[in-house]
Structure formats: structure tokens, C-alpha cells
Amino acid sequence: MTVTPIASSGSNPTTYNNNAAQIGLGVALGVVFIIAAVLVTALSMKTRSEIVLRRRAEVDLAMARGAQPPLQSYGFRDNPSSPPQWVHPPVELLGRELSSWPMEGGSDADARHLFALGRNGQDGVTAGVLEEEGGKIFLTTLILLASFINTSCDSDINKQHQQPSQPSQPSPPQPPPSSPTDMHRIDRLPDDIQCRIFHDLDQVSKRQLNNTSRSLRKVTAPYFNPSIRITESFNEKEALLLTLQQHGRELIDELNFCVRPKALDNQDTQVGPGKPGVSTAAQEILSGTHTPNLRRINLEYDFELEKEAPTKFEQGVAAFDQPKEEEALLQLENDQTWRRLLADTWNALSANRSVTHLSFKRFVPVWSSAFHSAEFRKFMGRLERLDISIFGMKNGRRSINTVPTYNDSLQSLLKVFFLHASSLKRLTLQASQQAPLSARGNYHIPLSLKATQLPKLEHLALKNCFIGFELAHFINGHSTTLKTLDLHNCYAYRSTSTVDESSSGGMYWAPFLALINKPGMKLRRLTLSDDHIPLTIDDKRLAKYNPEKANEPEDVKNVRRAQKANPKKRLLLYAYLRDYSGELWMNKDAIVSSFEAGDDQWAYDELVSAMKRNAEGSQEAAEEEVQENGAADSGCEVDDSTEIYELPG
């Protein structure tokens, strides 16, 4: 389907030029015509003035000699009984009728004398007659000029309308509907009008518009990015093919796949040997058999392991008691349905050749035999973006990071993922609050980020992690490629225990920030944010805070007063894990003392200054910002049913 932009008839520059040329030519000719008409009128008026006065002089002379003019033709009587009164005949009759008047007697001198008297005495009457005549001539000239211009314009318009039908004068080639020029014109329309236009287009045209201009993506995004949501038990292949036929299989670029293992210890849910854990239809859609342009897959784990449930917690703990060798895993997958389900899911996913963005939601770190396959390694090597959100739980006050098998399984899987993801440009790693990464002490789970891995990484985002030498070394190893760093709910490790020797291994914020502030780095944006500590610059309640009335320690009040006086001051966080439960706790004393010392603030300001210098003159900064934040909401109302097609499982 082609898209023809709607434009007014005067929106064509060529039409403007042609009309302007014709009107200009008409005006020029009209001016010449007026000048000529004025000159001719003046000469005519002068000549006729002399003729009129001469004839009137002759009439007066004839009357002086006693001749009677034909009053029935040239005059009138107010009263028939009164003597006749002479009235000058009309101008147009003077030249025709006066020639028959008698001019007997008299001399030429008398005639010249009367002619002179007539010119002087009849100026008022003669001038009025001549002005009326000249006005008629001038008005006629204007009418002719307007008619000429109108005829010229109509002729030009008719030529333009008839030009495409004339074989000898073919119309110039028009740009394609999706050319940048036309898209620029459409982009100038209000968003609501753009929404109306795109709403009536077919899916192929919407896809073409999206690829034309970045500014149009915010309007077209809700229309041309449909996704599918299915589960592992979906087996309605006919419904799947019908959905793809209706909405265009080449337009589906996102898949939401939910893995729902049954109860981990329920023997009734086991599947016999040779029977797949994932339906054939689900495997086909996951592998991209019917969706050649699938780019993103959101893989969600739903193990039904609820928090604060001891039974579920013990089931989850047992799930991590597993081998890592391929043969042993194959045996487990043959015996346990939920493990076979995971293996089938990853095997089908590894067969997908088009996906470049993989997102884990509630990722449960359990091993699968699919992680040993060559297809899986190739699949990870094709990814350009990876988002991992790790599942965590707790039993009472006991966090999952107190389970050694969980920590070991998570660490080993992260190593496998990062080892093979050689094409990654964006990485988002979100740990659970029940198991923060890179902590010190007994519950340490490394980030598993190596300076020699992920050579193309440009954007790194971490959540619920601890900073330290491991992260600083990784950032320095990617100083020439890493552009943005987002640390959300990230802390420096500092314990309150006097007997905790591991606390000495933690790094303060100041040396960490100074360590990543490396000459020649490409980093141009650092984001530090948190959800749980209200002593930050982003706290909306800070403007209404009254330190004198708050029920807080005096040192905390001083921190708030300082931030209120200077909102640019940052409050960098320090935390630790409790010994017996593994829970995350804030170290208030370390936070306040570091704030008062000012070393963290100084290192932060130095790094920000360096990043500003890196961003100056960089035209990529704005483009990267758009890509990171996504298309802005255009305000178009789009039915959810047109965005996500959820098929029953």
C-alpha cells in the first residue's frame, strides 16, 4: 500500500512559480496597457474638447444670427407654454448633427471670437462632460486588464491540469510516498492527525513509515509493534497461524513466553520418556519458524515459589541441588517434567536465528542440558541486548542467599552467559534484594563480569549490587566502549560488626569513582539512584521537610539541612548483609560520616566534569538518549488488543 500525503493545491513550489510568472507578466502588460490608454485618452480628450467647443461656438454664432436649433432633438421645454430653453446636445451627437446647422452670415473672426468665449465660458460644462467620458474609458481599461489577468491564470491552471494527459509533455517523476521529504511534511502535522493517518494504513505501510524517520516512531510504535504472549502448553497451531495471517507474521517482532513448571515434587505431573515438555506449536513460535522478523523474546519463569512459604522455600532449595554435567542433567530431565520443560524451552530458543534481544523475568538459576549445546553458544553470541532479572525469596527472615547451592548455581550460570555473549552492547543485571551481588563475607555472589569479556558493551545497568574492585576493574577494561553506567540500589559494603574482618575488604565510594575516572574513557553518563533511603536529592518530600520537627537523630537532620541548602550534594549509600539471615541493612553511620567528610562528593563531581567533557560536541548523545528511553508517548489511543495477542495455553 502506498501513502500519498494530503497537501493543498498551492503546496507545490512549481505551481507557485508558474502562477507568479503569469501574474507578473499580466501586471506588466496591464501597466503598459494603462499607460497607452491614458495617453490615447488624453489625446482623444484634447481633440474632442476642441471639436466640442468649436461646434458649440458655431451653434452660439448661429443662434446670434437668429437660427433656431432643432429643439425636439437637442433640447427640452420645462413648460410647453414658456419660451424654449437651449440645452447643449449630448457629446456623442455634436459631431453628427451640427453639420446641418445654418452658418449663413458672419465672419471667421466672429467665429474665432465666439470659439474663444466658448472655451473660457463653458469650461465647467465641458470639463464635466470630458471627465465623465475619461472615467468611462479608464474603467473600461481596468475591466479589460482584470479580464486579461483572469484569462491568463485560468489558462495556466488548465494547462497544468491537462499536462499529465499530454503525451508530449510527461509530468516530472514524483518522489515515493515514503521519501524523507514527504515524511518531513507528515511529521509537521499534529499528533492526533498523524494517529488518524496511521490508523487507516495497513501493517506493511506502518512498517515502512517507521523505518523512514525516527521522529515518526513515537506515533507509529503502538501500531506496528504487535507481540504474542503464549505459554509452554499452548498447542493450538491453527489459532497461531490464523493470528499470524491476520496481523502479518513478518510484523511480529516481540514474543512473551511464560514457562510455568508444575509443583517441583509432584510426581503426577511427570511426562514419560520421549514426550516433550513444551508443545510443538510453542516450540515452533519460540524458534522463530513462523516469525522471521522476531527480534525480542521476554522469557518469564513462573515457578510459583511464593515468599514466606516454608514448603515452597524448601522446594526451591532442593531445586538448586543439582549437577552441572550434561549427562547427569539429561537424566534428571528425563525423570523430572519441569526440568524437561526448561530444556525444551532453551533448545527451541537457541534455534532462533533472528532474535537479538533476550530478557529474563524472575529468572530461577537452575541448570539445563541446553546450556552445553553449540546452538546455545551461537545464540548467545548473536545477542546485542540482554536483560536479566533474578528471582529471589526468603523464609521468614532467612534470605535465599544463605543457601550455598543457590549462590553457586547463580554464579556459574552468569559466567556461562557472559562468556558467550560476545556481541552484547547493552546489559541489564538486576539481582534480588534477597541475594545482592558482589557483597563481601559469607554470602558473597560475584558479578561474574570479566574485563576481557563483552568487548562491545556500551551500556551497563546494575540493580541491587555492591560496588567494589570487581566492578571497577570491569569498567576500566571497557573504558573505550562503555558510554553509560546506571547504578540503581547499589551500595558500598561497610559492616557495623567490630569482629567482621570481611568489612575491611569493602571499597568506599570515593576511591571507586576515582578509579573509574580514567583518562581517555568514553563514559558520558552516570546515574545513581535508590528506592529505599529517602536522604537523596530525588526525594520529593525533602522540600516539605522540617528538620526542627522531625523525629530523627541530629546528624541525620544536619544531612537534610545540607541537602536542602545545596540540592547538588549527593548521599551515597553504604550497606551490609546481616550474619545470620543474609538480609540487606543500611549502615547509617557510614552514610552520614562519608557525607560529612565530603570525599565521596568530590570524587563524584570530578567524574561528572570528565563525563561532561566527553559529551561535549558528541552528536550521538541525543540519539543514544532516544534509543535508551524509547519512543515517547504520542497520546494516540490504541486498543491493547491490537498490541498483544494472547493465545490460550
Distance between the termini: 35 Å
Q: What is the count of β-strands?
A: 15
On the 0 to 100 scale, the average pLDDT is 70
Enumerate the spans where pLDDT stays under 50 for 5 or more consecutive residues: 1-16, 68-131, 160-168, 174-181, 267-271, 628-649
Output the structural class: alpha/beta
Q: What's the number of helices?
A: 22
* Helical content band: 40-55%
Relative strand content: 5-15%
Largest sheet: 10 strands, parallel
Spatial strand arrangement across the major sheet:
12-10-9-8-5-4-3-2-1-15
Sum up the overall morphology in one term. flat
Whole-number radius of gyration? 47 Å
Assembly status: single chain
Number of domains: 3
Strand and helix layout:
Elements: H1 13-64, H2 71-74, H3 91-97, H4 108-121, H5 123-162, H6 180-187, H7 191-199, H8 203-210, H9 217-224, E1 227-231, H10 237-247, E2 254-259, H11 280-287, E3 296-301, H12 310-319, H13 326-335, H14 337-350, E4 357-363, H15 374-382, E5 385-390, E6 394-395, E7 398-399, H16 404-420, E8 426-430, E9 459-463, H17 469-477, E10 484-488, E11 492-493, H18 509-516, E12 525-529, H19 554-565, E13 574-577, E14 584-586, H20 588-597, H21 599-615, H22 620-629, E15 644-646
Parallel strand pairs: 1-2, 1-15, 2-3, 3-4, 4-5, 5-8, 8-9, 9-10, 10-12, 11-13
Antiparallel strand pairs: 6-7, 13-14
Region (Disordered): 155-186, 615-649
Organism: Cytospora mali
Biased composition (Pro residues): 167-179
